[in-house]
Specification:
A hairpin with a 3-residue loop joins strand 6 and strand 7. This protein has about 270 residues and is an alpha/beta fold. It is globular. The longest helix has 18 residues. The relative contact order is 0.16. It has a 4-stranded mixed beta sheet with strand order 1-3-7-6. A two-stranded antiparallel ribbon has the order 2-8.
């Protein structure tokens, strides 16, 4: 399958509601919404380095989105890790950043988020591009599976909040994005699929052929991983992404409705 066809399939699948995890959608209007109290709202924003980039509407909407994740998703500590409320807020807040756009995408909520203290081993179950499956376990910082589960390394979550280029929360929840969420009242449909196909196709080929000083080469594996690492670069290194991949940056900024190149996120050690 050539790149244009593959990109078309990727965009089409996103538009056709092909999120990796099949689970009831994030619904804000079906029932009385979960809410964070004022102290939780303040702490949520304090834990997000991107808080200074959000407008008043987004600052109001973010806690509502995060509250649904905190309420409806089970957060489970592994290998003796004690999951604190701050940890839940930090993960839910970052995931909710992906749904703040003017025409917001929504993702299917995972049933549970498993949090390991550090990197963990997984067994590869899907064949690579050569049709091979490696029997050896792989050391990973995150994983999203089609059984309604996201797995994260807390060490890597902390590192991202302090400014590391890799953001495991954004990467894994980017895999859950579904551009075909039921349209909310007044929200226009996503009508720029052709632009996404063109822009992402060019950037993907550039990464495969020339590499990139901003986008992790891991994204050269396939289009799904390319999208996830591009999301990481957009939020973690927005100014650099805008400089080296201008059209890709503009396309993502229009969708997420956040200008991460305007000023650096306020990365700091919060834990």
């Amino acid at each position: 399958m050539n790149t244009v066809a593959a990109i078309t399939v990727l965009v089409g699948s996103l538009i056709a509601a092909a999120g990796i995890i099949a689970y009831p959608r994030l619904r804000l209007l079906v029932r009385a919404p979960a809410r964070l109290n004022e102290r939780e709202r303040a702490r949520l924003l304090a834990l997000l380095p991107w808080r200074g980039l959000l407008d008043a509407r987004q600052l109001e909407r973010l806690p509502r989105l995060a509250a649904r994740l905190v309420t409806d998703v089970r957060f489970i500590g592994c290998q003796g890790l004690d999951v604190t409320h701050d940890m839940r807020l930090a993960i839910a807040g970052q995931a909710s950043l992906l749904c703040l756009g003017a025409t917001p995408g929504t993702f299917a909520l995972p049933g549970e988020v498993l949090i390991y203290p550090d990197a963990f081993y997984i067994h590869q179950t899907e064949p690579d591009e050569n049709g091979l499956v490696d029997d050896l376990p792989l050391l990973a910082s995150g994983e999203a599976w089609d059984d309604s589960r996201v797995v994260l390394s807390w060490t890597d979550v902390e590192a991202a909040l302090a400014g590391a280029p890799h953001n495991v929360v954004l990467h894994e929840f980017a895999h859950l994005l579904d551009f075909a969420a039921p349209a909310q009242e007044g929200a226009p449909p996503m009508a720029d699929a052709d632009r996404w196909t063109h822009v992402f196709g060019e950037a993907f080929e550039q990464l495969r052929e020339q590499g990139s000083p901003v986008i992790d080469i891991y994204g050269a594996q396939n289009l799904a991983e390319f999208f996830a690492v591009a999301v990481e670069a957009f939020f973690q290194r927005g100014a650099e992404l805008a400089s080296h991949h201008t059209e890709l940056y503009r396309t993502m900024a229009a969708y997420f409705d956040i200008d991460t190149a305007r000023q650096p996120p306020a990365f700091e050690d919060l834990f």
